[in-house]
């Protein structure tokens, strides 16, 4: 994650074993085992990679209470393939 200025942040995700289909991804309140409703949508991962700019500052994202989460595909949305806590500074 890097600051994009004006209260925005660029979020880059990279998965090592993508399933082949585009994968929806979001920022959620966490933890990973108990996700809250998404608070920021991210670009779908394509071939395991996504780059998005969200309307949240780096400080807002790095509270230690948020996670990035990826689904297997639109068709298999209920299957989680990745989830990671966004660490506090």
Instruction: Give the radius of gyration.
Output: 12 Å
Main structural class: mainly beta
| Largest beta-sheet characterization | 4 strands, antiparallel
Overall outline? globular
Secondary-structure element pattern, one letter each:
EEEEEHEE
| Intertermini distance | 12 Å
Task: Give a short overview.
The chain is 4% helix and 47% strand.
Structure explained in plain terms:
The structure is a single chain. The chain is built from 1 helix and 7 strands; from the N terminus they run βββββαββ. With 89 residues, the chain is mainly beta. It has one domain. The relative contact order is 0.30.
Main traits of this protein?
single chain; 89 residues; mainly beta; four-stranded antiparallel beta sheet; three-stranded antiparallel beta sheet; 1 helix; globular
